[in-house]
Specification:
With 202 residues, the protein is of the alpha+beta class. The protein contains six helices and five strands; from the N terminus they run H-H-H-H-H-H-E-E-E-E-E.
Length: 202
């Protein structure tokens, strides 16, 4: 193993480093998703990436599934890395190789986003009546929510012991990623009105 690694050039070491790191993180994310811990994992990383609540997808919070998330970054690196290392011998030109790898990486991101959108749709059309069961549920902000309904963010709440993701708006000040929230009202089947738990008067 050591001999194989030392025999690699600098570029291949970088590619293998990206590939193996992305693969490891992907496995960890998948396991955490199945055990229900994915919400905190993504919230922590997104807090670091977006600098304390900024909308990193550049859409003002209108996107149902943020494009520039940590999960999508890992998926891109996964597709890009494995394509690069597996096709290096078949594609002599580095520019062509990296172009093909980038296209496959973007394609993998698109496939995963469509898969999550489909799963979300299945959840919404399943046995959970969001209009009856979401009000008063608590959770966390997943993508920052702009103030005074000026845009949508995303929240993850627990309904019937299952973590669900919904678009969200708020009437108050902006809510950064990781903020504890409570559902005040169901705006639509996919959008909730929320407020920060710490602002509640008991």
């Amino acid at each position: 193993m050591v001999e194989w690694w030392t025999s690699l050039g600098v570029m291949m070491k970088v590619l293998w480093g990206i590939t193996l790191s992305a693969s490891l993180i992907f496995v960890i994310q998948s396991v955490m998703t199945f055990i229900g811990a994915d919400a905190d994992f993504n919230a922590d990383f997104d807090t670091d990436i977006d600098g304390g609540g900024a909308d990193i997808d550049g859409t003002g919070g209108h996107s149902g599934m943020g494009l520039l998330t940590f999960r999508n970054f890992v998926n891109f690196c996964l597709g890009f890395g494995w394509t690069s290392v597996l096709l290096k011998e078949q594609i002599a030109s580095q520019s062509v190789l990296f172009t093909v790898a980038a296209i496959i990486g973007i394609g993998l991101v698109a496939i995963v986003m469509l898969l999550f959108k489909w799963i979300s749709g299945m959840q919404e059309s399943g046995n959970i009546d969001v209009f009856k069961q979401a009000v008063d549920c608590t959770g966390k902000v997943y993508l920052a929510i702009p103030a005074e309904r000026k845009g949508e963010g995303k929240v993850q709440i627990s309904i019937n012991n299952a973590v669900r993701e919904y678009n969200a708006v708020t009437d108050g000040s902006a809510l950064p990623t990781g903020t504890d929230i409570r559902v005040v009202e169901v705006v639509s089947a996919s959008t909730l009105l929320v407020e920060e738990v710490n602002t509640l008067i008991i």
